[in-house]
Write a structure and sequence with these properties.
Blueprint: H1 3-20, H2 23-28, E1 37-39, E2 44-46, H3 48-63, E3 64-80, E4 83-96, E5 102-103, E6 106-116, E7 119-128
Parallel strand pairs: 1-7
Antiparallel strand pairs: 1-2, 3-4, 4-5, 4-6, 6-7
């Protein structure tokens, strides 16, 4: 499997973890670095525990009964053998937990992916609207 295929697999695993909010799946794709960060549309989270609890559980899971994250195009740029940047247009199809109504956003997502112990892992995610 090429680096690009491995990196695309991480992106798809991230999308799946956003949709399922499975703790093990979500944590398994992130770097072990304490410098992990995620910048959402409204907040920033530092460290894996903050990203998992603040963004995924207190944010997404609390707001949506259902969420589908769709990557409309994925552009993988390998910087070197241990670093890649991924950029893609995204949109969501959600059901709001409080009202049961459909809701969605769209924007641009950037991911920084690093190779650790032979495996590609997320280090940074940034959502833009």
């Amino acid at each position: 499997m090429t680096n690009a295929q491995q990196i695309a697999k991480v992106v798809k695993a991230y999308i799946r973890a956003i949709e399922t909010q499975d703790k093990t799946d979500f944590r398994s794709i992130w770097s072990a670095s304490p410098d992990c960060t995620l910048i959402s549309i409204t907040n920033q989270y530092h460290g894996l525990e903050s990203i998992y609890q603040g963004f995924l559980i207190d944010g997404i899971q609390a707001a949506y009964a259902e969420i589908k994250l769709i990557a409309d195009s994925i552009d993988i740029r390998e910087i070197n053998e241990n670093l890649a940047v991924v950029v893609f247009q995204y949109h969501t199809e959600c059901i709001r937990r409080d009202t049961g109504e459909p809701y969605g956003i769209q924007g641009l997502e950037t991911q920084v992916i690093v190779k650790e112990d032979g495996h590609w892992k997320l280090l940074h995610v940034h959502y833009s609207k």
